[in-house]
Amino acid sequence: MQNQTSPLVLTFGVSDPVGATGIQADLAAFGALGCHGLSVTTGLLIADSARVEDSYEIDADWMVDQARLLLEDMAVSAFKVGALTSIEQASAIAEIISDYPEVPLILDPFLSSLPDSGLMDDDMLGAIRQILVPQATIFLLSQVELARMAETWREGGGEQLLEDVAELTGSGCAQVLVTCTGSSGSGPDAVRSNTLYGEEGELARFHWRHLPGPFVGAGSTMSAALAALMAHGLEARDAAERAQEYVASALLHAQRFGMGKLIPNKLFASTFHGTTP
Hints:
By secondary structure, this protein is α/β, with parallel strands linked by helices. It is built from 9 helices and 9 strands.
């Protein structure tokens, strides 16, 4: 009998019947990047390729039982935490992950395909910030999501990206990867940027060619790739650069399966020369 050699990555997230986001998308990306995925479901989506119509919350106790059973049986090399459906889930996951401080955690809790993107509940935002962000190795979010989260602690208006990032890294989060931090050009020559920050400020800025889309699942693909690459032992900066290359390839070869949005082609991207650890 052959022993397992592929790194194991445990993802917490919603079940998307389309496979564009959530745990189905994570498992595809993990496999494409040489990892084996384990999953714990936080919610069930009712969705097609155009929209999410509703979601069903999974009981937090059931979720804990499933996660503990997996972790007692297998050693994981990375965690990913995606979209959550209750504060109880956030608290339970934070407690579980705290038992494995040496294992990298990729935190990506905001799902743009949800009707409210997971950003409407101040209590949920507060819970994520207070109990999950301090444990994160990389916290992935957009500028819009960062500004919305910052409203829970910031006095006054206006966007203060560097100050908001510093609030997160100061709480214990190792790195923050903010998407869409800049753009240049237009049309087929348009370029977008994502920026990685640490406690000392900006660590790296990554550029990619803007594609017209519309896409669903680009962010989920990015965070899944980060988790897989860190499971292979890459440092945050290298993992972020390689993950962005992988996502750019997946988007370039995205497919439209229905009448809705384009879905990143994670399996095509696995053959891209820059992604194999």
